[in-house]
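Researcher: Quick test of sequence recovery. Tokens follow.
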């Protein structure tokens, strides 16, 4: 059993700066990343050549990633601005009209490209893909 929780004080600091700017000047902010609305434990991972590798196996040669705890960010600014979300990538892209965009692309696509367009779109909106 692991007894670790990832905390990003720098993320909280940046989100507070953004919220203070919005409160003083108006506007809105959209934060996009992978994560959840709860504490997730150990999400640190490394990706090299499209494969997961141990984060310390090849320093400087793999991309490091960790999921965002959106609840942590929301709580850090709730006294300054209204906060909403998170929403899934699928819901977000569908609200922007990804299906309509796919249909437009399919109308003009060569037959050989149609399958790639459909599978790429499915990868973006399917819950188990991304």
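Model:
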């Amino acid at each position: 059993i692991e007894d670790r929780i990832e905390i990003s004080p720098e993320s909280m600091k940046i989100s507070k700066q953004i919220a203070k700017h919005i409160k003083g000047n108006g506007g809105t902010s959209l934060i996009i990343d992978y994560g959840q609305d709860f504490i997730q434990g150990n999400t640190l991972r490394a990706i090299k050549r499209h494969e997961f590798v141990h984060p310390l196996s090849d320093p400087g040669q793999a991309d490091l990633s960790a999921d965002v705890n959106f609840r942590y960010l929301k709580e850090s600014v709730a006294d300054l601005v209204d906060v909403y979300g998170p929403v899934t990538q699928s819901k977000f892209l569908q609200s922007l009209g990804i299906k309509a965009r796919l249909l437009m692309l399919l109308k003009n696509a060569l037959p050989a490209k149609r399958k790639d367009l459909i599978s790429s779109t499915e990868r973006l909106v399917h819950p188990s893909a991304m």
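Strands lie at 35-36, 45-48, 51-53, 63-65, 68-69.
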